[in-house]
Amino acid sequence: MAAAATIAGERNRVATAGRLELDSAVVRFAGDSGDGIQLTGAQFTQATALAGNSLETFPDFPAEIRAPVGTTFGVSAFQIHFGARRIWTIGDHPDVLVALNPAALKVSLEDLKPGGIVILDAGSFDERSLKKAGLAADPRFDGTLDPYRVVPVDITAGTRAATKHTGLSVREQLRCKNFYALGLVYWMFERDRAPTVRWLEQRFADRPELAAANIAALDAGHALGETAEIPQLPAFHVEPAPMVPGIYRTVTGHEALAFGLLDGARKAGLEMVFCSYPITPASALLHHLAKLRTFGVTTFQAEDEIAAVCAAIGASYAGSLGVTASSGPGIALKTEAIGLAVATELPLVIVDAQRGGPSTGLPTKTEQSDLYQAVFGRNGDCPIVVLAAATPSDCFAMAREAVRLAVHHMTPVMLLTDGFLANASEPWLIPDLEATPPFPARFRTDPEGFHPYLRDERLVRPWVKPGTPGLEHRIGGIEKDYASGNISYDPVNHQRMTDARWEKVLKVADAIPLQGCEQGAPGAALAVVGWGSTYGPIARAVLNARARGHDVAHVHLRHLWPLPRNLGDLLQSFGRIVVPEMNKGQLVTLLRSEYLVPAKGLSKVTGKPFTIAELEAAIAAELEADRA
Amino acid sequence: MNAPTCRLEPKDYASDQEVRWCPGCGDYAILRAVQKALSNLGADPARTVFVSGIGCAARFPYYVRTYGFHGIHGRAPAIATGIKLANPALDVWVIGGDGDMLSIGGNHLIHALRRNVDLQILLFNNEIYGLTKGQCSPTTRLGTRTSSTPAGSIDGPLSACRLALGAGARFVARAVDTQQKLLPEILERAKLHRGAALVEILQNCIVYNDGAFDDVAGKEVEAEAQIRLAHGEPLVFGKAKDKGLRLRVDGLGLEIVPIGADGPDAAGVLRHDQTDPVLAQMLAALEPPMPVAVGILYDDPAPSYEMRRAQQAPAGRRTDLGALLRQAPTWVVPG
Fold first, then answer.
1. Which of A450, A589, A597, B115 has its Cβ near the most Cβ atoms within 10 Å?
2. Taking every annotated instance into account, which residue ranges of this chain make up the domain Pyruvate flavodoxin/ferredoxin oxidoreductase pyrimidine binding (chain A) (predicted)?
3. CB < 8 Å from B in window 29-48 of A
4. Domains in chain B, ordered, with CATH?
């Protein structure tokens, strides 16, 4: 087991071939939105994954596509937390900040750990860029950076010197700055450059001079680390993390979601028709699926959110798997049509990549404030199944689960992700697809005794493909007669149909797993109950509390409606319950109203995930209150 | 290939549901014309789908013995598009009124048309909201007193056919509900057109807007107030076929010209060319006191959405999802 060293504290130094042994590290790359920061982060992620570390990453980019160069609102950042142990979060505070301009330094500095390393591009610190960043004085000389170990490197000049021979314009030479910085960080953390070199050669196959320039910058940055012997810049070694054996890749939440939807459709024996309208941060799903046409995926960019969900409903009516996706504001627009899918009792998968609200809110920031909208947000008594993915790789399994439940229970299923899950990445043990048995959809073809709302014992109606002879029928949003499926305004019938729709969705609880504890056990003194992307910070905070001997359990809900059958009993067993959420307390309200448990909420809506420290403080406060 | 071996009669396309439109509603005549057209086309009920939104017209699917989907207000073209995405082989008809398709659902109509999805879109235009009890609609004429405009409507009306042409529709036609010979013919032509076909049907609402089309469709005025379009034929009208339309000499537009003994060509009367989009726009814009154009204004097929999609379809079909998941840098953690 590697010694638990950190960069800031540098406790327990262990030299490995001149390198300091580290348990984990958090690195943030920050620069202008045109600096290629996301690409740099992706390469470092890949190299770190290949080195066998556990990791979590998160891109933090501005809402503007190209904000004015050098401004603070144009800063694009990428954070990675990696280590020799299981990494659950993107890290509360960076240990290393790579800032390619003054604005990037200004924006990221407040998050940096005291004692952390700041690698800054000294060549970018001129009067003009300081002014653009809104800095009155040069932070290098006014004491601002005193708490940190500053490594001023003239990345601008170094990049130009390394790429001069390529014959590229100065502008093009300077676009290689990010790879110079990357080379230096590769040296710091002992990363292999070869896969990045291969990637550059492929990416710029038609412009080999650009590949050559970027590779030259990467090598020059690496060489600087190796030869310059900068005292503030140690070299580190991070052991591979113990991981379940198998083949791994990295995956973002919405990549995993696309794969899960596809595997779900395959297991159901259905064609997938994905209909959506562009919206941040859900659009990535459309992009991923549009590339999967060779697998039979149909994608349709509709004229608006309403058309997108309606086309998905039409596709399901015609016998395909209709899927739509959006974020909060778009889901609001789809609401009436989701009610239509409830009334017509058709399978439909709706992905809600939540973001800060209300209204346009914070399009690129994360929040989990659409739970009410998902569970309750429609006119009439209008129940649907609601699921939530917990981690980027969990999006795969939950997407497949959404397909299974939609198809087998003839119901819309809303799968909640968020801006964090959509874009965050982590290592993914590539699943054995055949290990999960298929769940083929059944279509009614027998006209004998048929009517469209004839229900089975689970209250599920038959699915009929138009084109089936002898089963011609009409369905719609008007109330239907329980016995014949014809239009009915009969009051008693409406009660019966409303009850049936409600019961049908509640009965989905029979088809989902019982709720367990991620850590700890029933009866714990304190349970931390979460849902969605708070999984990582809760898991780590509970792990830390348990390591200190506290009786704390972590319960994480993936099925939010209907709730697991045993959840009431499980919650009643705990001494105290705290529910951290990136909203004003939506799950805690649901749990209190369903089970009359004295659960307490913990709210955060800053657009940023919970830090481990925040959750540890909340756990400590609850345990303290318990003792009092 | 899937057509039934023996042709069904119009009555065979009637469902077992009791029709619940107001007695005397123009919708009855349209239902009759549609059933006749389906019979003439030999439509297979199992492969035919009627999709509607909300409104009086939107009850239509319940009355046809085919597959039917009664959607939500304005969204029928979007639902129908989804059906065609899933199964392009289905024959899909979209039914809606002027409020449904031009107001709340206007966006979906124009996009179904510009995409050229292979749909027959029947727009029942009665220039009023019926089901919600008589408010003005986007086609209500200026000055009309309705329950929502007691002092007369001040919203300018729009023309469904002009809008459709502007949206890039490749088939645009107009008929009157009572034209029981013309209407089924147009519906059949709409069906045979591959791509989106818009048919505006002037339909009388006997309760809230009775007689709205009397100046166009009344038996005693129709010969003078309408011009029947026939591809390649001169644009003539009038009881005695003694008037025609020609291009104005003093500007762009159509004007009425009397036809003398030498016939329409000598009088400079235009011949209808249903593939001419400029002529179609001019004909669509004719309003009283000019004769209202009835028939097929425009029919110039272009590749449908389904055809374009088929052209893009990948040659083979991959099923190896497991290999797809490995199409990324991977690493092995040994056991």
1. B115
2. 267-480
3. 46
4. 10-212+300-310 (3.40.50.970)
